[in-house]
Amino acid sequence: MAAEPDNLVLSLLRDMRAALAEVRAVQDEQSRRLIRIEGRVDETHESMITGLGLAAHASIRHDRVEERLRDLTDRVERLEGKP
């Protein structure tokens, strides 16, 4: 009789160990996937920041060019005597 409870406990422990190994395998796969997703999010964030920076820079340059063109147009009109 004494052998039966030990065998039952050992059997349950083996089952628990097997289940735990499966859980660890799933967790490892999820960790790898999460690392890949984080990398993609970081790349997307960097691309967005770069794109916004370029757009802002282009907008500022466009405004400067427009201002310069307006100044030159005004100057030419004054030199030609146009109102």
How would you characterize the overall build of this protein?
By secondary structure, the chain is mostly helical. 94% of the residues lie in helices and 0% in strands. The N and C termini lie far apart (116 Å). Residues 55-82 form a coiled coil. Keywords: Coiled coil.
Biggest sheet descriptor: none
Rounded mean pLDDT is 90
Percentage of helical residues?
A: over 70%
Radius of gyration: 35 Å
Q: What is the general shape? A: rod-shaped
User: N-to-C terminal Cα separation, in Å?
Assistant: 116 Å
Tally of DSSP β-strands? 0
Beta-strand portion reads under 5%
Topology order in helix (H) and strand (E) letters: H
Helical segment tally? 1
Q: Return the structural class.
A: mainly alpha
Low-pLDDT runs: none
List keywords for this structure.
83 residues, mainly alpha, 94% helix
Give me the secondary-structure topology.
Elements: H1 3-80
Short description:
The chain has one helix spanning 3-80. By secondary structure, it is mostly helical.
